[in-house]
Amino acid sequence: MDKIIVITSNIAPYRKMWCEELAKFYDVTIVYTKDHDYERDDRWLQKESETCKIHKLKNDKDLYDPICFDVIDVIRDSKNALIIFDGYGPKTNLLGLLYCKLKGRYSLVNVDGYPTERVKSPFREFVKRIVIGKLCTGFTASGEATKKHLVAYGADPKKIIIHNLSSIKDEEIAEKPFTSEEKKEIRKKLRIETERKIVLGVGRFLPLKRFEDLILAVRKCKSDCELFILGGKPLDEYLELSKDCDRIHYIDFVMPEEVSEYYKASDLFVLPSETDVWGLVLNEAMAQGVPVIASDSVVGAKSLIDGNGMIFKTYDVDELSKDIDLCLREENNKKMSEKSLEIIKEFTIENMVRRQKPYIDTYFGKEKGN
Questions:
Q1: Which of 48, 49, 239, 339 could crosslink 308 through cysteines, CB 3.0-4.6 Å?
Q2: Could you tell me which residues are beta bridge partners of residue 293?
Q3: Class of domain 171-344
C-alpha cells in the first residue's frame, strides 16, 4: 500500500479523523512534535489510532514551537512516501521543507487558513514569501480565500488543491433543523433551564477570542435571549462584564462529543475572534442546523457564511448586537438553519479526502480518479 507521512505539531481530533479517512486508501503514519497546546485542554488532543501509525519526534523540552531534528531521519527513511506537512510555520516543518527542497523531494503542505493580523512584520512577510513561493512544492488549502492568500505570496495556483476543511463526518450532519420541542428535550438533558433563545460561543478564554465583545453585544440585544460560553474557566474581566446579568452563563470544558449537544440546543452560534485561521466551530455548529455569525477576521466565514448568518466587522459590538437580533427573528432563523445544513454538506472529512485523492494518486503514478 502506498505510504503517506503526515507531520504535525500535535494531533487534534479533526486531524486524526482526516488521517484515518486517508488510511482507508493509504498506509498513513502521523508524526507529531509535542504533547501540549497552550490554546487547548490536553484532554482534547489525540495520541492513539486504530488505523494510523503514530510516531513522536524527540522533543525533550516542552516548547511552544519545538525544532525536532529527527524529522530529517523520518523523511530520509521514507523514500517512497508522500510527505504532507501540516502547515508551513512550525520550525520542525520548516526544517523538513528545507530538507525536501535540498533533496529535490516533493511534498504537500496542508494549510488550514491564515492569520489576519492588523499589523504585519516586514521581516516575517519577507520570510513567508520565500517559504510559500520557493520552499513549498504543493498545497492542500481549506477554501478559496486560503488559495487566494497563498497565490498572493507566490504559490502556483495549479499546485493548490481546495479540499473544504472540516472537522465533521457525513454521518454527523443533522437531517433537518431541530424543532423547538426537540431543543427543549436536549436542554433538559444538559440541565439548561430557559425558554429564551440561546446564543452559543465555544472556545478557550483567550484574549484573541474576543468573548468580551459577545458578552457586551448580548447585553445590548433586544431579543429575548441568553448567552452560553463553553470552554473553560472565565477570566475575571468576563465575570465583571456579566455581573448582575442573568443572561450570561459560563460552562467549563467538555469533551468534543458532548459539545454537539450544546449546538443542538442552541438557536445561534457566534465566533467573534480578532484572528482565526479558519474557525472549525462554525462547521460544527452548522452541522447541527444552527445559523452562525462570525467576525470578518475569521477566515472560514468567507467560505461558510452565505445566507445562513452574518459577518460583522471585528470589534464592532453594536453591529454584532444588531446581527444577533436579526438572526434570532423566527422567520430568519428557520431559513438560516436550513441554509447551514445545505452548505455544510460540502464540508466533511470524507469530502476532504475525496477531493485530495486524485491528486495524491497522481503522485503515486496511478490514474487520476482511482
A1: 339
A2: 270, 310
A3: alpha beta
